Amino acid sequence: MRNDESGIIYYAGGIQHLTDARYFAARNFDWIGLQVDDTDPDSLKISEAKAIKEWIEGPSIAIEPGFVDSEELEFLIKEIKPAGILLDMASFQVQNHSIAMPRFQIVNDQTLGYVDQHTFEPQKINWIVSADLVAPLRQRIEKDSILLDIKEMHLDSILEFLKSGLVQGIFCTGEMEMATGIKSYDRLNDLLDKLEELGFKNE
CA 165 to CA 149: how far, in whole Å? Predict the structure, then answer.
């Protein structure tokens, strides 16, 4: 699902807690990605992913299975019934799997560009989109939506990549806990508010 006004996808990924899922749902994100792996203690169990999916209203739910083979992937899809899937760019064993749902892949600023040394300023690094670096992505764009991981990126750099047309949306993750059960979303709120003010709205 794309935002009607800006044409970009708002995707929150790596979700392992209901707190983060509720935050991004309240921010009207298009997608929430649940990191699922029954064998990984740092990921959601299938039962936990299904519970969060039931609690959340609004965003479409994607799964993020990491490194799995086609059989394991089919099992996760059958159990959780997601609306989409985020594929690790290195998971070649499932890249050509026939998945009849929206597919997402993540890139970051270093995947797509390089630092413009001529316009470097303190606390601000300008990234230039490099055609050579993005060329390999063009073949994937036809079947996968490419999301820009905006973690620790400056607003100007985010806008540079969004305007380039080489990415279809942004990828955000939840915040670390300040204390047990307590999180601050001040940094994310500030960044998302600025994107909305510039016309990249998600409502």
Answer: 15
Distance of CA 168 to the CA centre of its chain: 11
The C-alpha atoms of residue 155 and residue 194 are separated, in whole angstroms, by 8
89 burial class (0-12, 13-18, 19+ CB within 10 angstroms)? middle
Q: What is the pTM of this model?
A: 0.80
β-strand partners of 61: 32
Residue predicted with more confidence, 10 or 124:
10
Q: What is the pLDDT of residue 127?
A: 44
- Cβ-based neighbours of 102, under 8 Å, separated by 6 or more: 60, 62, 83, 84, 85, 145
Strand partners for 146? 105
Please name which of 190, 186, 132, 184 lies closest in space to residue 158, comparing C-alpha atoms: 190
Q: Is the dihedral of CA 94, 22, 151, 189 positive or negative?
A: positive
Partners of 127 in the β-ladder: 115
Closest C-alpha to 146, from 112, 183, 182, 175:
112
- Tell whether the model's pLDDT for residue 43 goes beyond 80: yes
Q: What share of the chain is helix, strand, coil (3-state, %, to 5)?
A: 35, 25, 40
